[in-house]
Amino acid sequence: MEREYLQTRLDALFNGDNYLCAESVVQVIAEAGGRQSEDAIRMATGFCSGVARTCGQCGAVSGAIMGIGMFAGRSEPGGEIDHTYAMIQDFIEAFKDTYKKTNCFDLTECDFSTAEGQTKFKEENKRNDCLGYSLFAVETVLAILREHGYLPEYDDLITSQMAPCGLLCGKCGAYAGGPVQTLSAALQAELGDNFGEYAKRFEGMNPVFKQYAPFAELLDFFAHGSCSGCREKGCLFQACQVTECIRDKDADFCFQCEEFPCDHHGFPERLAVIWQKNNENMRDKGVNECFRFCKDKPRYP
User: InterPro entries of this UniProt entry (predicted)?
Assistant: First the structure.
């Protein structure tokens, strides 16, 4: 199931003039671990087309190396690097075992710095070959990262982020490690500890700064990520009885229970409608499909 999704996702990214090999590979790897991928995509652009049309390393290989570094690279001066290098070496070895080469020109026989090379790529439909390299790169990197404990298995990732009610914990404003927490922490760090004093000075220029103190309190809540998901600490909505009920039923989601839909979920009417609709969608379309649909949408539409 995951291979089918990865293939479809890469095909969608690497279609027309959307993204190229390195960009697509690093984006899909980032998505698999719930990471923000925008900066990674920007960094990967120059590695596409054989390192910016210089007949250099294959972009799928470059994107894969960046993907490993995204999760296993060091983040502090003097940090350990041998473990990261070993994983990258394992990937390179696997890629060479399958395709014999890692150089873009050797794999495609197209010099992208020339009009002839670009025309040959299109006329001989080399894009399909590059999709194959990209799919192999993503699958291999995900397997390596999971083997070394940097990523959960795909089904475990979904279960950790998708609540039993069908809402996506990973996008919640209280979820630790989610985009709201990550972006809020970045804003908090950028403003610094003393911005409150500056806000008072700015009040004369714009009265909106009078609201900085309550804003800073809310930002601090978002930045710290107070919840690791419904299955860990319980829902912030204290009336919810779903998590405990699911645990008693030894199920992952409400639709898997023979009593679904029931009336002992603890939700008010509006949330009960959403709860039932979410679980019916997961039952009818599959949990994986619902997760893929939800993960790119705002949590609070």
Answer: CGCAxxGCC_motif, DUF3795
| Domain regions of the chain by residue span | 2-151, 158-294
Q: How far apart are CA 54 and CA 48, in angstroms?
A: 10
Q: Do the beta carbons of residue 181 and residue 222 sit within 8 Å?
A: yes
Number of C-beta neighbours around residue 267 at 10 A: 18
| DSSP bridge pairs for 162 | 168
Instruction: Give the type of residue at 189.
Output: A
pLDDT of the residue at 211: 95
Q: How many other C-beta atoms can be found within 10 angstroms of the C-beta atom of residue 247? A: 11
pLDDT tens, position by position, 70-98: 999 998 899 899 999 999 999 999 999 99
Question: 56-59: which pairs have CB atoms within 8 A and are 24 or more residues apart?
Answer: 56/103, 56/104, 57/102, 57/103, 57/104, 58/21, 58/101, 58/102, 58/103, 58/104, 58/107, 58/133, 59/20, 59/21, 59/22, 59/23, 59/25, 59/104, 59/130
C-alpha 96 chain-centroid distance: 27
